Amino acid sequence: MTAPPVRDEGEDRMEIRFDHTTLGQRVLFGTGAAATNIAAALRDLGASRPLLVGGGHAAEVVDQISEQFAVAGHVREVVQHVPAERARDAVALAQGADADSVVAIGGGSATGLAKIVARDTRLPVVAVPTTFSGSEATDIWGMTEDERKTTGTDLRVLPRVVVYDATLTLGLPTDLAAHSGLNALAHAVDSLWAPRADPINRAMAGEGMRALIPGLSGLRANPADVRANEQVLYGTYLSGVALASAGAGMHHKICHVLGGTFNLPHAPTHAVVLPYVAAFNADADPDSDACIAEALGALHAASGLWDLAREVGAPDSLAEIGLTEDDVDLAAELATAAIPDSNPRPVSLEGVATLIRSALRGDDIRG
Fold it and tell me: Hey, what long-range contacts does 38-41 have (CB within 8 A, 24 or more apart)?
């Protein structure tokens, strides 16, 4: 929600007041320039022994970096939701190999693992996204242990440099690209309801949505469209910056529970849940509903998000990706406890359970 206008009693005018923090981060954006930009970033950081994380879908880039730097180690296998045991192993590897930096090449799972290494070792991270996760733009970390996903914010985990290269997303399977892009869109949407929402991140979110929505449609029509990939990466970054500034809202808290506790796939979960959260908040925050709807070219945010998800091939329901009716009560209990007070509509256990059940069934919310 945007900071409310405050009337200045001395003058008959309205003021906008807010407290905004912009996170410091370098972004190197260039199609075909990943290896060159990673090398430049490492040299400018004074780093020469990077720990590589991920890179399975960017073997050529990994090889080029390995030829130029004394790579301290390589964590090739990454797992969604950052299991704690794997995170501890990666931290130990970085410390034992005397790494002086971390280069994460991959989606949100690779970036997420690199963030835990950075949190526990204070090493700088260079993030090289190969999906549209948006994690690279935030200081939010997450880790799962004993079927519970814990998240937090820490400036140590914010990647010092982000390297965007559209050639690294060209090979994404169509469905993965769509799910990942909708996850990025969720960052923009959820930032409007988050604890530190303000006019600056609202502007970032709006521009992010205006880039992502046509870009996702373009990718669905032609996954090899370089311009569409660039547009989605650009929108992904802006949306991630908005979320990093505003914090995580109701949507992300629900999805973190569904992913961490029930091991649902990260991006598809966001894609399914987002329209239901938009419908839940619509009447309580008509300004945000109108902002989202305008970017979608729809009458209402929820119906527009519903239609977009189906246009680009998202799953129809949470049941389709592994949630069961038996899971709903626990999911609602954990999510309700985590949802921040900033949500425009008050939440209750019953209300959250109803929302999750609707998403479980894939109820049509356009009516």
Answer: 38/65, 38/103, 38/126, 38/128, 38/163, 39/64, 39/65, 39/68, 39/69, 41/126, 41/160, 41/161, 41/163
Q: How far is CA 26 from CA 45, 125, 237, in A?
A: 11, 11, 12
- Residue holding tokens 């902002």? 291
CA distance 184 to 7: 35
Domain of residue 259, residue span: 174-361
List, in sequence order, the alpha helices (H) in 71-225.
84-96, 108-121, 174-191, 199-221
**Which residues make Cβ contacts (< 8 Å) with residue 171, sequence separation at least 6?**
57
Q: Does residue 156 sit in the same domain as residue 220?
A: no
The structural domain count of the chain equals: 2
pLDDT in tens, 116-140: 999 999 999 999 999 998 999 999 9
pTM tops 0.85, yes or no: yes
| pLDDT < 70 positions in the chain | 1-14, 367
Token pair 């680009």 is found at 312
Which residue matches tokens 């009516």?
367
**Which residue type sits at 341?**
D
Are residues 225 and 123 part of one domain? no
